[in-house]
């Protein structure tokens, strides 16, 4: 697929495939805004392999930043992602939207300057957009606005009790 092309997403399977394609193409950073990552496909073995490969090639210390509406599902029902987080916790930062913050209704992934967006976080319809568009800048601004006030999310670190 050419980077300059836009592509419609019409199903959950299309969304999951597009998320993995986007991460495969990423070189330095990944920003994700999602409800709980349940429909992202990242908990699958392919998703873990894709994230691991990205973390190994990305030079940024904060290669992956994730902002969730709810971190409970990740912490309690995503053992593969939590294992990855325990291995690469120094490169992955996860936060949860704080009470009183109003996240956008969309869910999105930004890899470098490429945007993959779901028009509403409860529906699978979305689009992969060409890099450099205004939609990518708007989504990134929304992410960066919510990030400082968000609460720490799951870390993958053992409690040591």
Discrete helix count: 5
Assess the beta-strand content as a share of residues.
Answer: 15-25%
CATH topology: Endonuclease, Chain A
Total number of beta strands: 8
The overall pLDDT average reads: 91
**In CATH, what is the class?**
Alpha Beta
Number of domains: 1
The main pleated sheet reads as: 8 strands, mixed
Q: What is the distance, rounded to the nearest whole angstrom, between the alpha carbons of the first and last residues?
A: 49 Å
- What CATH architecture label applies? 2-Layer Sandwich
Please compute the radius of gyration using only Cα atoms. 15 Å
Low-confidence stretches: none
The largest beta-sheet arranges its strands as 1-7-6-5-2-3-4-8
CATH level-four homologous superfamily name: Endonuclease Chain A
Decide which structural class fits the backbone.
Answer: alpha+beta
Helix content: 25-40%
Helix and strand run: EHEHEHHEEEEHE
Oligomer: single chain
- Global shape: globular
